[in-house]
Design brief:
56% of the residues lie in helices and 12% in strands. The chain is of the alpha/beta class. The protein folds into four domains: 104 residues, Alpha-Beta Complex (Conserved hypothetical protein from pyrococcus furiosus pfu- 392566-001, ParB domain), CATH 3.90.1530; 43 residues; 52 residues, no CATH class; 41 residues. It has a five-stranded mixed β-sheet. The mean pLDDT is 81.
Length: 291
């Protein structure tokens, strides 16, 4: 994470929001926050990093916002010209992760927006779900659940959550259904709300469980056709040896060790060797189709 190097007062106009900033799509209660800041002052300063000289020609130094977008917007509404900031130093990955953590801690992001930010950071810095979870202090199932919510939820349900028509908890129950049935359950909830009835999460769970039980059972996949000559060659190679199979957790642990080794090494030859080993383990775990 970025290192806190100083606190200071800078001009509001010198603060920028970079293109890679994980900004909020929906900004809530900015007016209320502005009123609170006006009455009580800025309790928690903005977090910024230096961005070099201003290109406008005024000669001022530019600062990029790392965390505190709601506070930044609220200060703008108040017309503040000078603001207190915490100046941090770190690379782009550090500041992107700090921004994620800030959003989680200060005011929870809408789940789909949080998941989009997770995906953006994972893709930009080539992080796995496990690596991202560790870096932002969340459990891997927590991150996985958010990403699953983004991927498997019907668009109509996403809109309903964003508009506040249903809660994210309702959506998490509905996401286990096919998308067409998610929409059906959503419409039932909205119809009940129109008539003044409240729909609990437990009711949604009961409905989704009933619908899942009625879904046709999936037929088993056709067994794959293997190259019997290669199978025979392998059996001859290991004839007389007892083959044991590692548990999945042990394989994942080895993959994690290779990831760490790859980050530390500077040798191209070693990196290539690690790549081949990773490919083999990925094939074993089923995350890639071919070696």
């Amino acid at each position: 994470m970025p290192k806190d190097i100083s606190r200071c007062i800078i001009a509001y106009k010198d603060i920028r929001i970079g293109e890679d900033f994980n900004g909020r799509k929906v900004m809530k209660d900015i007016e209320e926050l502005a009123e609170s800041i006006d009455q009580n002052g800025l309790i928690q300063p903005l977090v910024v990093r230096e961005g070099g000289p201003d290109k406008s020609g005024e000669g001022n130094r530019t600062y990029f916002l790392v965390a505190g977008e709601r506070r930044y917007r609220a200060l703008g509404l108040l017309g503040k010209t000078q603001v207190e900031v915490k100046l941090v130093k770190g690379n782009s990955q550090d500041t992107a992760l700090m921004n994620l953590v800030e959003n989680e801690q200060r005011l929870n992001l809408e789940p789909f927006e949080a998941a989009k930010n997770y995906v953006a950071v994972m893709e930009r810095f080539k992080l796995t779900q496990a690596q991202l979870a560790k870096k932002i202090g969340k459990s891997e199932p927590y991150v996985s659940q958010r990403l699953s919510l983004l991927k498997n939820t019907a668009p109509e349900v996403k809109v309903a959550v964003e508009n506040g028509a249903i809660t994210p908890t309702h959506a998490r129950e509905m996401v286990t259904l096919p998308k067409a049935q998610q929409v059906e359950v959503l419409n039932e909830i909205l119809d009940k709300k129109k008539s003044g009835k409240k729909v609990s999460v437990a009711e949604v769970k009961d409905e989704t469980d009933k619908r899942k039980a009625a879904l046709p059972k999936r037929r088993g996949k056709k067994p794959p056709e293997y190259d019997q000559e290669k199978v025979k060659l392998a059996r001859e190679m290991f004839e007389g040896k007892e083959l044991s199979y590692r548990p999945k957790t042990a394989i994942l642990e080895q993959m994690g060790a290779l990831c760490q080794l790859n980050e530390r090494t500077q040798s191209d030859a070693t990196k290539q060797a690690i790549k081949y080993k990773m490919a083999a383990l990925e094939w074993v775990t089923g995350s890639r189709e071919t070696l």
